[in-house]
Design a protein that fits this description.
By secondary structure, the chain is α/β, with parallel strands linked by helices. It has 13 helices and eight strands. It has a single domain, classed as Alpha-Beta Complex (inorganic pyrophosphatase (n-terminal core)). 43% of the residues lie in helices and 12% in strands. The strands form two sheets. It has a six-stranded parallel β-sheet with strand order 5-4-1-6-7-8, sandwiched between helices. Strands 2-3 form a two-stranded antiparallel sheet. Helix 4 runs parallel beside helix 10, helix 5 crosses helix 12 and helix 10 runs parallel beside helix 13.
């Protein structure tokens, strides 16, 4: 199988629909996975920031969800393996979960935490550095809708729990990669508005209007991030450690860590448990296993 064909199959596997229309949303995003992977793999040393963290205020207790941080840390570990520089970025409500994910999956990767209060002063200090980045990746990071407010899948305005990291995502000339699964994440503005409104429940209300250069759509965002690591492994086969990151056991360890150490919650079930977007481990692990198999067979 040619690399292009293998990457297209990775994208198809990652977009498996879990009830939110991801397969339909992935159609106009076709080619985004290969474009993103080539952009990252083609640089001798990418300098990237990965934004993640989606807070669930209605969970018991409130916390960041399990989808997003796992994929973000997987990407950070992959970029570090490629010889690049990378940092994770989130906001204060999501910081405990993202920090736990880093500790479990990519120890030593820097974490930058945006405050909810005093955000403008914080951003003024970091924006000069972000203007020099080669890539900015958003993995399951909520973005503003047409009314400027970030909303969850239920249409709730979560602006009071969310720092406006879209300002970093759009700052400077960095190549922007968006990873999402439901239409309300940074990068989803690349999709036709009518498609999101038709396919996604409350799509007109929650659709993020911020676009990107390359969009990856997954049934869960973690799957799409894993597909990107898989595509990097195909383009850079000499970096054998990339394949280690694709083991489902790697994801299982990070998932357990963020739930047990930081109380990460399933964004659908709104409880702290070892599931992602309402999927128990066997169902969640199936696409991860297939992604690893595709890369191993190439």
């Amino acid at each position: 199988m040619r690399v292009e064909e293998a990457v297209a199959e990775l994208a198809r596997v990652a977009a498996r629909d879990v009830g939110r229309g991801s397969e339909a949303l992935a159609v106009p995003a076709a080619g985004g996975l290969l474009t993103a992977a080539r952009s990252l793999a083609g640089r001798p040393a990418p300098d990237a920031a990965v934004l993640t963290g989606f807070f669930i205020p209605a969970a018991e207790p409130p916390a960041a969800e399990t989808d997003g941080p796992i994929g973000a840390v997987q990407l950070a570990a992959a970029l570090r393996a490629l010889g690049g520089q990378v940092r994770l970025v989130t906001d204060a409500p999501c910081a405990p979960v993202v920090a736990a994910a880093i500790a479990a999956g990519a120890p030593g990767v820097p974490l930058e935490v945006a405050p909810l209060r005093g955000y403008d002063d914080w951003a003024a200090g970091v924006l000069p550095r972000y203007a020099r980045l080669s890539h900015v990746i958003a993995c399951e990071r909520v973005g503003p809708g047409a009314d400027g407010r970030p909303r969850n899948m239920r249409g709730d305005d979560i602006g009071g729990h969310t720092a406006p990291l879209e300002r970093l995502f759009t700052a400077g000339p960095a190549f922007r990669v968006g990873i999402g699964d439901g239409g309300n994440e940074l990068g989803m503005g690349r999709l036709p508005a009518e498609l999101v409104e038709r396919v996604v429940d409350r799509g007109a209300e929650i659709r993020c209007v911020v676009g990107c250069e390359a969009l990856l759509v997954g049934g869960t965002s973690n799957w799409a991030a894993a597909a990107l690591v898989g595509a990097l492994a195909l383009l850079r086969p000499e970096v054998t450690t990339l394949r280690d990151l694709l083991r489902p056991e790697w994801s299982a360890e990070v998932l357990s860590a963020i739930v047990e150490r930081a109380g990460a919650v399933d964004g659908v079930r709104r409880r702290a448990q070892r599931t992602v977007d309402g999927l128990d481990w066997p169902a969640y692990a199936e696409p991860l296993t297939r992604i690893a198999e595709l890369v191993a067979a190439a």
